[in-house]
């Protein structure tokens, strides 16, 4: 599902809301999650999962085309851990 499909589904299920308002709500939620993670904070949505940021240290990598050793800088990457309810539902237990 892509963002526009999510917005359309929420708008369809809530006919009392204008689509532009639903779009603002969805965008605000995504922006708040992104902003919190950019600050290094963890975002937990109970029953769904938790978003966090993991730090990857600098290391020596290898260019797969040439085999040459290259320096890979330290970086921060997003990480998602599923919640128990989501995991159970995916495995047919819920």
TrEMBL record:
InterPro entries: Hist_DNA-bd, Histone-like_DNA-bd_CS, IHF-like_DNA-bd_dom_sf, IHF_beta
Keyword Transcription on entry: yes
Recorded GO MF terms: DNA binding; structural constituent of chromatin
GO (cellular component) term, any one: cytosol
GO biological process: DNA recombination; regulation of DNA-templated transcription; regulation of translation
UniProt KW keywords: DNA recombination, DNA-binding, Transcription, Transcription regulation, Translation regulation
SUPFAM superfamilies with a match to the protein in the record: IHF-like DNA-binding proteins (SSF47729)
DNA-binding listed as a keyword: yes
SMART domains documented for this protein: BHL
PROSITE patterns: HISTONE_LIKE (PS00045)
Functional note: This protein is one of the two subunits of integration host factor, a specific DNA-binding protein that functions in genetic recombination as well as in transcriptional and translational control.
Subunit structure: Heterodimer of an alpha and a beta chain.
HAMAP family given in the database record: IHF_beta (MF_00381)
Family as reported in the entry's similarity comment: Belongs to the bacterial histone-like protein family.
UniProt protein name: Integration host factor subunit beta
Gene that this sequence comes from: ihfB
